[in-house]
Amino acid sequence: MAREQLQVLNALDVAKTQWYHFTAIIIAGMGFFTDAYDLFCISLVTKLLGRIYYHVENAEKPGILPPNVSAAVNGVAFCGTLAGQLFFGWLGDKMGRKKVYGMTLMLMVICSVASGLSFGQNPKSVMTTLCFFRFWLGFGIGGDYPLSATIMSEYANKKTRGAFIAAVFAMQGFGILAGGIFAIISSAAFEAKFDAPAYEVDPVKSTVPQADYLWRIIVMVGAIPAAMTYYWRMKMPETARYTALVAKNAKQAASDMSRVLQVDIEAEPQKMEESVSAFKLFSKEFMHRHGLHLLGTTSTWFLLDIAFYSQNLFQKDIFSAIGWIPPAKTMNAIQEVYRIARAQTLIALCSTVPGYWFTVLLIDRIGRFAIQLMGFFFMTVFMFALAIPYDHWTHKDNQIGFVVIYSLTFFFANFGPNATTFVVPAEIFPARFRSTCHGISAASGKLGAIVGAFGFLYLAQNKDKSKADAGYPAGIGVKNSLIVLGVINFLGILFTFLVPESNGKSLEEMSGENEDENETGAVELGPSGLNKRTVPLA
């Protein structure tokens, strides 16, 4: 029979939504705001980097980053993120959520600024320095995934927990928007101050020397919101679930949460446990209880991110096709940054941000499972709708239809598995493994992102090598790549059935920790040494 829940944890589960919950969302969410800004803003300035550092005399088109340099600049942060998710996820369970939370934020702030100060005598040294700092920026960003999700899940009440965790993740949408809007404003200001002819008029003068400051400013500004929340992160108490269940200090947990929730919670005496060892991560007992759950969270996040990050393949073609971005040679360097930022901001505004907030609104009403299943289903349908009649969509008259379906695909990614794969791993594992398991799930997702962003970059090249992008080998073509992505999304539907529904249940109920404590022979003693029954907070 399951033991009754600790009073402090029950108080958190039944607490009414109050101001403290919203401050926690903002404090945790600002990390995600910065994450999205920093990962996204590099795509706004890669064309500019090509013009500044890889200009070719008398070339018909402006300079671009060579394929290997482009892959490194865009991909090194993903590699750092993957490593950071595993390392800080593990550290969050060993040292506590709060202690590690400040480290990740400072790493992000320092490396954001350092990325913008990338130095060197030649293009290679500038790109090498930029890649070095972006790896460590990614490392800090990676730590924010398991820690923000775990902290928010452990602070939230069980009625609105899904919405709170999803709201933290949804701050990514605002980070993407902020990156685009700041790039629009700064490039417009530079354009007004430093007039320059189009590339086809004067290739050298089309890139003004001051353009080298523009990309650095855009990259560095991401540090500001993170730095602003550092003080508040340090003021947050350790989560009650870590203090009570992992550090085994129920008295401290009650004291911390009495202050936070502004209610009196009786400090419960420590439990005396018989020497029955709790099972370890990846032990036979762990795999029996949570092995399929971990397979479910890692596989669905991996499959989702392959599809989600493959969008980079099609954006430039879509933007050019519908006239949002004219040919590069008809613009100067700063105008190109402005046009790219405007196009990506419109995509974010129309499909990315609304999808996130639909999830926030509905996740505690219809549940995680339904949203994830629906999201993968529609992504599968829309990928096949783009792929099978692909030749139809390439005709000029049909391009708007292509953009609409393309946008809907990513609306249902965000109102679907992109949000739920972040929420669920923070709810279904025991407190002592929660951060680690979320980190493993998130790292699996980032592996999918690397496959999606770079594997498909090569795969989607034209079958005819002479028609492939410069420096790339022949691939299977865009149509076949879309069919493969449709199959990947269908696999996501199947693996979703391994993930349990956590809607409306306490974290201890999901992870089986109440049963654990009963099985390990925990006896709770009152002041007189008699068994004392915990009285749940009404």
UniProtKB/TrEMBL annotation:
GO cellular component: membrane
Domain Major facilitator superfamily (MFS) profile, residue spans: 24-504
Entry keywords, A to Z: Membrane, Phosphate transport, Symport, Transmembrane, Transmembrane helix, Transport
Transmembrane spans: 20-49, 69-88, 100-119, 163-185, 213-232, 345-363, 369-388, 400-419, 439-460, 481-500
Cell location: Membrane
Biased composition (Acidic residues): 510-519
Molecular function terms from GO: phosphate transmembrane transporter activity; symporter activity
Membrane topology: Multi-pass membrane protein
Region Disordered: start-end pairs: 506-538
Domain of life: Eukaryota
GO biological process: arbuscular mycorrhizal association; cellular response to nutrient levels; phosphate ion transport
Chief location of this protein within or outside the cell: membrane
Family, similarity comment: Belongs to the major facilitator superfamily. Phosphate:H(+) symporter (TC 2.A.1.9) family.
Protein name: Major facilitator superfamily (MFS) profile domain-containing protein
Species the sequence originates in: Prunus dulcis
